[in-house]
Amino acid sequence: MLYLIAEQLGFPHLLNLVRYITFRAGAAAITALLIGLVIGPRFIGWLRVRQGKGQPIRSDGPQTHLAKRGTPTMGGLMILAALALSMLIWMDLTSRFTWAVLGVTIGFGLIGFMDDYDKVKKRSHKGASAKLRLVLEFGIAGAASWLIVQAAGTHLYVPFYNGAVIDLTYWGYIPFAAFTIVAFGNAVNLTDGLDGLATMPVVIACLAFFVIAYLVGNLKFATYLGIPHVPGAGNLTIVCAGIIGACLAFLWFNAPPAAVFMGDTGSLALGGALGAIAVATHHEIVLGIVGGLFVMEALSVIIQVFFYKRTGKRVFKMAPIHHHFEQLGWSEPTVVIRFWIIAFILALAGLATLKLR
After folding, report:
1. Do 179 and 281 touch, CB atoms closer than 8 A?
2. Cα 244 vs. chain centroid, distance in angstroms?
3. d(CA 123, CA 107)
4. Who contacts 4 (Cβ-Cβ below 8 Å, separation ≥6)?
5. Which pLDDT band holds residue 123 (cuts at 50, 70, 90)?
6. Nearest CA among 3, 1, 21 for reference residue 213
7. CB neighbours (10 Å) of residue 169?
C-alpha cells in the first residue's frame, strides 16, 4: 500500500527509499516482528482462555511431552496476522506473485485452523479428515499455480544445469507445482512437533529464498549465474522477510518452555508459503535441498507407515524422526538445536547450486 502511495506521489524525499525492494524487505521484517511481539501476550492469553485445556497431547508419544498439557495451540494465527499486516503496508499490491503466495499462506492457514479447532473441540490429536484437507490444499495450490505460471512460465529447471530442462506445459506444470506446494506444506506440518523445531528451519529456508528470489528477479544477476529470470519475482523477497520477522516474533513465545504452539494453522501455512515461493522462482528442486530437513521428516513418516503396514515392524522407534531421537534418549533441546544446524547446512548447500552450473 505504501509503495502505491509513494509511486503516485513520484517517490519524493524519504519516500524514494520505498522504491527499493531491499528497503521494503527490511521494513517488512521489522514490522512483522514488532506486530508479533506486541500482540503476542494478549493473543496467547486469549487463546488460553478460549481453549481451556489447550492442545491435546498424544499419550503414546514421548513421556516428557505430557508436561506440556494445557499449552494453547493455534499460535500460527499470530504469525499470519503479523505477516498479513506487514505485507499490506510494504508489498507491491500489483504483484501477482505476492498475492499467489499470500493466497496459499492464508488458505493453508485456514485449513490448519480447521484442523486445530477440531482437535481442541474433540479433545483428540486426530483432527479433520485427511482426505478433506488434501482436497482443499490441492484446490488452493492449483489456483495459485495457475496464477503464477501466467507470468513465470511452465519450464522446469534443475540444479547444476544451465537453462531449462523441459517445458512441462500447463497440463504438466500446474499439477507438479500444486504437488510441490501441498507436499511441502505437509512436510513442515510433520516437522512441527517440538518447541521451535519447525520455526527456525523455516526462517533459515526463507533467508535462502530471500537471496534466490532477489537474484531470480534481477536480469543481470540471473543471466550471470545461469538461473531462470522471472520478472517481478524480486517482490517475493518482501514476503520472505515478512515471514522471517513474524516467525522470530512467534519464536520469542515458543522458546522452551513454550507459551503457545504453532499448530497446523502455522506449520501448514508456512510450508505452503515456501512451496509457492519455490514455484514462483522456478527453484522447486532446490527447495528439496534447502528444506531437506522437512523432506527428511516427511520421508521418515512415509517409510514408517509403508514398512509397518507390510511387515508389522517399525523402522524407527517413532515417527516423525525427531521423536525417534527423543526415544533414543536425546533431550528435546538437543534434538532441536542439532536439527537447526542441519537446516543451516542444507540451506548453504542449496544456495551453492546457484553458482555450480
Report:
1. no
2. 10
3. 24
4. 92, 93, 94
5. low
6. 21
7. 11
Q: Is 288 helix (H, G, I), strand (E, B) or coil?
A: helix
E strands in 43-151: none
Average pLDDT, the chain: 90
Contact 90, 31 (CB under 8 A): yes
CA distance 181 to 238: 19
The pLDDT value recorded for residue 120 is 81
Cell numbers at 156, concatenated: 522446469
How confident is the model over 194-250, as pLDDT tens digits? 888 999 999 999 999 999 999 999 999 999 998 999 999 999 999 999 999 999 999
User: Which stretches does DSSP call E strand in the chain?
Assistant: 155-156, 166-167
Residue 267 is placed in which grid cell? Answer: 506449520
Where do the structural domains in the chain lie, given as residue ranges? 2-352
Distance CA 109, CA 136 (A): 11
Indicate whether this model's pTM tops 0.85: yes
pLDDT of 17 over the 80 cut? yes
* 3-class state of residue 226 by DSSP: coil
- What residues does 156 pair with on adjacent strands? 166
First-residue to last-residue Cα distance in the chain: 38
Mapped onto helix, strand or coil, the DSSP state of residue 127 is: coil
Which residues make Cβ contacts (< 8 Å) with residue 78, sequence separation at least 6?
Answer: 36, 39, 40, 43, 44, 246, 249, 250, 253, 260
Q: How far apart are CA 58 and CA 323, in angstroms?
A: 12
Q: Which of 122-126, 262-266, 305-309 has the lowest mean pLDDT?
A: 122-126
Q: How far apart are CA 352 and CA 329, in angstroms?
A: 34
Q: How far is CA 349 from the centre of its chain?
A: 19
- For the chain, what is the largest distance between any 2 Cα atoms, rounded to a whole number of angstroms? 70
Contacts for 153 with CB less than 8 Å, ≥ 6 apart: 167, 230, 282
How far apart, in whole angstroms, are the C-alpha atoms of residue 210 and residue 61? 36
All residues at 6 or more sequence positions from 11 whose CB lies less than 8 Å from its CB, including other chains? 18, 19
